[in-house]
């Protein structure tokens, strides 16, 4: 399974999830199918951090998408509500800090130990931020891309990522455990590089706020 197909699966299941959340909240099947989308997108955040030529540009695109979502949610809900983009922005920060600590440790063991302790404090602070700001999927959701990023070999990466998905599901709603179904398409992913068009690069960032806005508009009309 190539990169484009895997992203399409994530896009479709995300859309189904949001259709259920906004238009058919009583029908659990939509939300169950939708559990597959978050882990796949989280996996691609790890891929983006590993292969992106500029993390600053990568995060900037997420931040612009989040800004649009913040405004939209403010008008719809009447209070500050962060989308999944904020979860992934924090994920990139976690991975970037992880890279810094690993680099320090390879150069100087003592400095590396200090770095690990500092990283632990950093993660504690991230956890507190996730709780206070009610970040979507919480602390373990922000950590999930790191589980895939830590291991470059296929099998260890999938095992670690499966553990991460399980940790996300602990304490979440009963249907969150269905997110483990994402391991199947991820395991079939061929990891071959594909040249993306400019349309593909920006499509997902545009699609996310637009499809949610349209669904809320449809919900207002229907209800």
Short description:
This protein has 10 helices and no strands.
Mean pLDDT: 91
What does the largest sheet look like?
none
Tally of DSSP helical segments: 10
| Uncertain ranges | none
- Which oligomeric state applies? single chain
Number of strands: 0
Question: What overall geometry do the principal axes of the alpha carbons give?
Answer: globular
Share of residues in strands: under 5%
* Helix fraction bin: over 70%
Structural class: mainly alpha
Radius of gyration: 18 Å
> End-to-end span in angstroms?
40 Å
| Element string (H = helix, E = strand) | HHHHHHHHHH
Describe the structure.
The structure is a single chain. This protein is mainly alpha-helical. The chain is 77% helix and 0% strand. The chain has ten helices and no strands. The chain has helices at 3-22, 28-34, 37-51, 55-77, 84-107, 109-132, 138-149, 154-169, 183-188, 198-222. α1 runs antiparallel to α2 (28-34). The longest helix has 25 residues, at 198-222. The radius of gyration is 18 Å and the shape is globular. 30% of the residues are buried. The mean pLDDT is 91.
Question: Layout of helices and strands, plus pairs?
Answer:
Blueprint: H1 3-22, H2 28-34, H3 37-51, H4 55-77, H5 84-107, H6 109-132, H7 138-149, H8 154-169, H9 183-188, H10 198-222
Search tags:
223 residues, mainly alpha
């Amino acid at each position: 399974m190539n990169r484009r197909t895997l992203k399409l699966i994530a896009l479709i299941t995300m859309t189904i999830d949001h259709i259920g959340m906004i238009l058919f909240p009583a029908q659990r099947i939509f939300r169950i199918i939708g559990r597959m989308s978050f882990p796949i997108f989280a996996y691609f955040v790890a891929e983006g951090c590993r292969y992106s030529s500029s993390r600053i540009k990568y995060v900037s695109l997420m931040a612009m998408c989040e800004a649009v979502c913040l405004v939209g949610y403010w008008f719809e809900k009447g209070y500050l509500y962060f989308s999944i983009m904020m979860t992934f922005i924090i994920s990139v920060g976690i991975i970037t800090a992880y890279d810094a600590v690993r680099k320090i440790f390879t150069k100087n063991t003592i400095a590396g130990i200090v770095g690990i302790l500092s990283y632990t404090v950093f993660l504690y602070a991230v956890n507190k931020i996730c709780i206070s700001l009610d970040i979507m999927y919480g602390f373990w959701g922000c950590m999930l891309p790191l589980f895939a990023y830590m291991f470059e070999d296929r099998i260890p990466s999938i095992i670690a990522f499966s553990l991460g998905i399980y940790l996300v599901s602990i304490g979440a709603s009963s249907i969150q455990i269905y997110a483990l179904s994402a391991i199947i398409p991820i395991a079939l992913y061929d990891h071959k590089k594909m040249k993306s068009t400019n349309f593909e690069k920006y499509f997902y960032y545009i699609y996310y706020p637009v499809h949610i806005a349209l669904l809320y508009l449809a919900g207002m009309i229907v209800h």
